[in-house]
Amino acid sequence: MEDYDEHNYNNSPEVPYSMNSDRASIIEKINPDEIVELLRMRLMGKSLDKQTGNWVTNNALKDNAISEIGAWDITNLVLSVSNANTSLSKLDDKTIRKRALGLLESAVGMMLCNWREYKITNTAQFRYVSEIVFSITLITLKMADAEGIRKMITSMYSESKSINEMGSIKSGKKMFR
Fold it and tell me: Over the stretch 65-79, which tens digit does the pLDDT of each residue have?
């Protein structure tokens, strides 16, 4: 039985996954481009037509829609915090709330100053965009609270290193037999 187990172990991959590719994969998944693009299009009152792959005006979203320039300005503001660097940062709750409120104030100021250009026509629309900006900002910044993602990546790296070292030790045993 020992030969069977040793044979299976030696024929199995030394490391079940590559840390470099897993870490890169996780960081790529944090990439905000997709959510920011989705947010931009939804702010313009559009949704993705799954059959054609094109963004089309959605009648359910059009009443709260803002102009293209408004959607770009607002999502560029959100993009300042919605990125991999922010997610991998070490932020405390006080800093997160201060930053989220600061971004909200900037968005509100931009909408007030540019309400015609952004095609903001009512207070409900104004609140709608404000809530979206605050929510996405707070949620994104909370990913960095207590180093959540950073700790997860570090623990994955440590686990991978341990598995690598065990594999090297096992390979060394076989070599000296």
Answer: 999 999 999 999 998
Whether residue 144 contacts residue 89, with contact meaning beta carbons closer than 8 Å, is answered with yes
Determine the straight-line distance between the first and last CA of the chain, rounded to whole angstroms. Answer: 18
**5-40 pLDDT, tens digit each:** 444 444 444 444 444 455 556 556 556 677 888 999
Q: Strand, coil or helix: what is 57?
A: strand
- Sign for the pseudo-dihedral over CA of 37, 25, 136, 102: negative
Residue 14's contacts (CB-CB under 8 Å, 6 or more residues apart) are 164, 167, 168, 171
Name the residue among 77, 75, 102, 82 with its Cα closest to residue 144: 82
Domain enclosing residue 99, as ranges: 2-175
For the chain, where are the alpha helices, taking DSSP H only? 2-11, 19-30, 33-43, 68-79, 84-87, 93-113, 123-142, 148-175
| Of 90, 95, 106, nearest in space to 148 by CA | 90
Query: Count of domains in the chain?
Result: 1
Provide the whole-model pTM. 0.66
- For residues 173 and 82, give the distance between their C-alpha atoms in angstroms, rounded to a whole number: 48
Nearest of 116, 46, 114 to residue 74 by alpha carbon: 114
